[in-house]
């Protein structure tokens, strides 16, 4: 019995030591990770604003060296609808620097008494700008299911490539929102809240 008590005590001490070591290792990981990132030049622990992201009047904290600050391109935003939805950009145009990550928001409203499934298709003018306009996040990547009377604000995050030809000073991003399905009215008890 005494031998069993000694074994239990030894095992308990070992478990306490292992627990303390594991906690210390976990606690030391964050500063060690930051130090490794700084040494290697990988800077993945900064906030979005440090990359020069501009979102509706938010100012970037640090200047991104990949942004062409000596050049401005005007981006115009347009919207069209095929179906009974209301759809528009929250801002008609923005002035951006090539290399700068920018965000714009579009709003869609389903004014009908039924669920509507729709998809946005983008187009660009001039056509040459298509290959220099990169969308990082866009509601056009997937179909949107809108509940009756639902309104939704949907972001588009994009960057203009620095290699955009110098003679292109204005780009128009136009979306056409197509209703895909939704001819079946939905009763009140079938309507479920949707995620934005």
UniProtKB/TrEMBL annotation:
Topology of this chain in the membrane: Single-pass type II membrane protein
GO molecular function: copper ion binding
Subcellular location: Cell inner membrane
Gene Ontology annotations for the cellular component aspect, listed alphabetically: plasma membrane
Keywords, comma-separated and alphabetical: Copper, Membrane, Signal-anchor, Transmembrane, Transmembrane helix
Pfam families linked: CtaG_Cox11
Function statement: Exerts its effect at some terminal stage of cytochrome c oxidase synthesis, probably by being involved in the insertion of the copper B into subunit I.
Family to which the UniProt record says this protein belongs: Belongs to the COX11/CtaG family.
PANTHER family: CYTOCHROME C OXIDASE ASSEMBLY PROTEIN COX11, MITOCHONDRIAL-RELATED, CYTOCHROME C OXIDASE ASSEMBLY PROTEIN COX11-RELATED
Name listed for the protein in its UniProt record: Cytochrome c oxidase assembly protein CtaG
Source organism per UniProt: Polynucleobacter kasalickyi
């Amino acid at each position: 019995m005494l031998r069993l008590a000694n074994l239990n005590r030894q095992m308990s001490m070992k478990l306490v030591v292992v627990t303390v070591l594991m906690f210390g290792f976990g606690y030391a990981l964050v500063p060690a990770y930051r130090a490794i990132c700084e040494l290697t030049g990988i800077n993945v622990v900064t906030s979005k604003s440090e990359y020069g992201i501009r979102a509706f009047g938010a100012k970037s904290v640090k200047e991104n060296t990949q942004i062409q600050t000596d050049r401005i391109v005007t981006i115009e935003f347009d919207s069209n609808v095929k179906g009974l939805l209301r759809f528009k950009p929250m801002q008609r145009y923005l002035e951006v620097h090539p290399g700068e990550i920018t965000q714009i928001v579009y709003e869609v409203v389903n004014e009908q008494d039924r669920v509507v499934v729709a998809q946005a298709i983008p187009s660009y003018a001039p056509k040459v700008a298509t290959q220099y306009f990169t969308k990082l996040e866009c509601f056009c990547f997937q179909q949107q299911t809108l509940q009756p009377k639902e309104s939704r604000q949907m972001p588009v995050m994009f960057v203009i490539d620095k290699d955009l030809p110098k003679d292109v000073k204005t780009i128009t991003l136009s979306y056409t929102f197509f209703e895909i399905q939704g001819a079946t009215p939905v009763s009140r008890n079938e309507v479920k809240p949707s995620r934005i």
